[in-house]
Amino acid sequence: MAGTSAVLRPYQARVFGALARGIARRRGETFTVLFPRQAGKNELASVLVAYLLRANARAGGTIVLCAPTMSPQAEISIARVRRTLGATEALAGDVARARLSGNTISVGRATATFLSASPEAHVAGHTASLALIADEAQEIDAAWFDRQFRPMAASTGAPAVLFGTPWDGHSLLDRAVAANRARDAREAGTPYRDFLPLHHEVAWPEVARSNPGYGEYVRHEQHRLGAGHPLYLSQYELRTVEAAGRLLTAAQLARLEGTHPRLLAPLPGERYVGGFDCAGEGARADASVLTIARVAAVGRCEVVRQVAWQSAAYARLTAEVAAIAHGWRLERLVVDATGLGGPVAARLAESLGPRVTPFAFTAASKAALGFALIAAIETGRLQLHGDDGSLEAAAARAELAACGGEFTAGGGLRWGNERGHDDYVASLALCLHAAEAAGAGRRAMGHSRE
Fold it and tell me: How many other C-beta atoms are found inside a 10 Å radius of the C-beta of residue 362?
């Protein structure tokens, strides 16, 4: 597309030019593209699709573009391509104007069809003769893509282009990137100058050279999440993250250790919050754990006390937790309201009022808690009290060290201990949630705030 590079930043133009040539010359190949988040990957993909449509308007051909979901991801891609075609219409000369019909954009005899890559979607019957493009390919099930989408290019030799960011090392995108890096490494010379690489990668400092504000944004994310946080590593450093079966690394466990003492009672002028993980009534395996932390600064959480109950009746739990919350003047108490914890959360809310925040554990909410826990540890915003030899201190450290973790497709995180306990870990994560929700607030002055 004449003049396309003028609307792209230099790093985008470099990759676009190589992809355009590679698609024309290397039929049947799979190209991979890694951009850091918010660096213009989607803009590049829309320009590539618009270029292929215009370049093949007379000869004809088909593009198939898939995204993890139809709504909103594939629909957003349709809107982007339409905007790109509209913005470059003056450059197209006498090429036919774009038309939209359902989920298909046509320019002359060339078409681009946008599909959901969800296993629940019905996608059979489509053919890709120009290109098969996958957006956010790290979120697409590899077996499903190979079974449903790869055959769309089998009879035509259309190349595939996978866009995204790395994740766990085993995703559709990660496996293709590893294979392409190995093949490119065997080529002689310098990529882009001496040969067209199969893998295209743009590091965030290169983006920052074209857009200094982006560099500030990435440095802010590093400060917010921590340099070792899995989301920062994957989305900005473009490194795969593997949990090795544990939620926290040895380095993160070490960072979690504080030197402040355990407290038996609140100190005047300090602010406190709590997190309560509730076990089933009469359960022998799990404990109900209350974690109390001092809010030392906005979002900073210093654990000062943990209390555990084993096989306690709900009536006793609610009465004792409410009494502790009153005594410690907790500004906020986040309570596990999942399943049988719901009635406990409701009774605590009756006793403590709006200071109680019920929290329902789902796959998504638990993943968010886990990522927040890692970020707070990475950035030094969360610390345990010093190990004073108490049973609670020992149990908390044992559970944190044993807590399993697994990064899942689509940027998810599963954590817990299937063979042991994670009650202290869950209570700690809920307490951190309370500290972050409490914000700056006003300082307590040694009196009840009920």
Answer: 9
407 phi and psi, to 5 degrees?
A: -80, 130
295: helix, coil or strand? strand
> Which CATH code, of 3.30.420.10, 3.40.50.720, 3.40.50.2000, 3.30.420.240, is assigned to 250-438?
3.30.420.240
DSSP 38-81: TSSHHHHHHHHHHHHHHHTTTT-EEEEEEES-IIIIIHHHHHHH
Start and end residues for every CATH 3.30.420.240 domain found in the chain: 250-438
**Three-class HEC string of 415-436:** EECCCCCCHHHHHHHHHHHHHH
Tokens of 205: 């400092």
- Compute CA distances 208 → 43, 47, 135, 233, 322, whole Å: 17, 21, 23, 17, 51
Q: Work out the mean pLDDT of the chain and round it to a whole number.
A: 91
Calculate mean pLDDT across residues 53-74. 95
The whole-number pLDDT of residue 241 equals 85
- pLDDT over 90 for what percent of the chain? 81
Q: Which amino acid is at 321?
A: V
How confident is the model at residue 279, as a pLDDT? 83
Of 243-252, 280-289, 363-372, which one has max mean pLDDT?
363-372
The C-alpha atoms of residue 309 and residue 315 are separated, in whole angstroms, by: 12
**CATH H-level superfamily of 4-212:** P-loop containing nucleotide triphosphate hydrolases (3.40.50.300)
- CA atoms of 233 and 165, how far apart (whole Å): 10
Is the predicted pLDDT of residue 283 greater than 60, yes or no? no
User: What per-residue confidence (pLDDT) applies to 446?
Assistant: 37
Global pTM value: 0.82
